[in-house]
Amino acid sequence: MEQFIEFNKVKKIYKMGEVEIEALAGVDFSISKGEFVIIAGASGAGKSTILNILGGMDTPTSGKIMVEGEDISAYNEKELITYRRYDVGFVFQFYNLVQNLTAIENVELASQVSKNPLDIEKVIADVGLTDRKNNFPSQLSGGEQQRVAIARALAKNPKLLLCDEPTGALDYETGKSILKLLQDTCRNTGMTVVIITHNLALTDVGDRVIRVKSGLIDSVTLNETPMDVEKVGW
Ligand SMILES: Nc1ncnc2c1ncn2[C@@H]1O[C@H](COP(=O)(O)OP(=O)(O)OP(=O)(O)O)[C@@H](O)[C@H]1O
Ligand SMILES: [Mg+2]
Question: 165 alpha carbon to ligand 2 midpoint, in Å?
């Protein structure tokens, strides 16, 4: 059966003057629709490179990436823009909020480019920011800004939600509630969610765990009975 996402011999070489850095050395993996996927691995292993290529923000040097039957590695720039706009929600490690828009306006902005957005007030409530929604990013804590970034990605109701260390800036309880929201969204809506983390305790909550090492896939594990986020501790 054709998988929802397929990486096939994907290489990424960054050229910096005379020096070549092989960030991905031939990566193969697949992801099924609606899975909650954890990508783990050491710093510099290639995790963000994989996510950026999957999100259409970077292109591979060679290899093929299929998403729902479409070869996104063959997309031209215009097709990539459409893909990023309608199909992908992205949560960056460092939020990337628009500084002169309030929390709710940041979320609104993203939902406006979606064909099928979720209710903004509900998403804001789900991330626990209802009483902070009229604050500008500079008036929010790091964790609150991260929650705006997550609300913004969710509000688009994308078919693919990609999160690069989404809880890196959050305290334990807030981080856990955000991960629970992501897991619940995945289970309740069928959205495919891919999360990069350094936190090895989270490998128990993934339907699929992809371990990356030195630009290669070290292992892929399927959890028959993934744990609920609220039941894991770290
Ligand atoms: N734009 C770039 N130009 C040159 N080298 C890059 C670029 N982006 C990443 N690299 C290099 O590619 C390798 C993989 O980087 P990547 O950001 O994917 O790692 P990572 O697994 O996400 O690490 P971390 O956990 O620290 O975020 C690293 O050696 C990095 O220095
Ligand atoms: Mg990274």
Answer: 8
Cα–Cα nearest to 143, from 113, 173, 122: 173
* Residue to probe by mutation, ligand 1, list 16, 18, 21, most atoms within 8 Å of CB: 21
Q: Kindly identify the ligand whose nearest atom is closest to the C-alpha of 198.
A: 1
Tokens of 142: 């790091």
Nearest to 195 by CA among 187, 33, 186, 43: 186
Angle at 146 between CA 144 and CA 150, to 5 degrees: 115
Q: Is 46 in the pocket of ligand 1 (CB under 6 A)?
A: yes
**Per-residue pLDDT at 223:** 94
Whether residue 54 has its Cβ less than 6 Å from ligand 1: no
pLDDT score of 144 more than 80: yes
**The tokens 């397929």 sit on which residue?**
6
Give the C-alpha distances (Å, rounded to integers) separating 86 from 14, 45, 67, 73, 191: 28, 29, 13, 17, 13
Backbone dihedral angles phi then psi of residue 147, each to the nearest 5 degrees: -70, -35
What pLDDT band is residue 1 in, cutting at 50, 70 and 90?
low
Euclidean distance between CA atoms 62 and 36, whole angstroms:
27
- Say yes or no: CB of residue 47 within 6 Å of ligand 1: yes
